[in-house]
Amino acid sequence: MLTKIKMMMTRIKITCVLLLILIVSGCSNSSEKTSRLRIGQFIFSDKPVEISFQKKDEKKLQKKLNYAELSDYQDLPSGVYKVEVTSENHVILEEELGIGSSGMYTLILNGILKPGHKTNELSSSMRLHEIVEGEEAIYPNAYLPQMRVLNDEFEVGTNEAKIRWVHLAPGVASLSGESKQENKQVFKSSSSYPKASKNITIPPEKQEISWSLKGNKIPVSNIQLKPDSQKLYTIFLIANRKDYLDSLKLVVGETPKKQF
Question: Does 11 score more than 90 pLDDT?
Answer without folding.
Answer: no
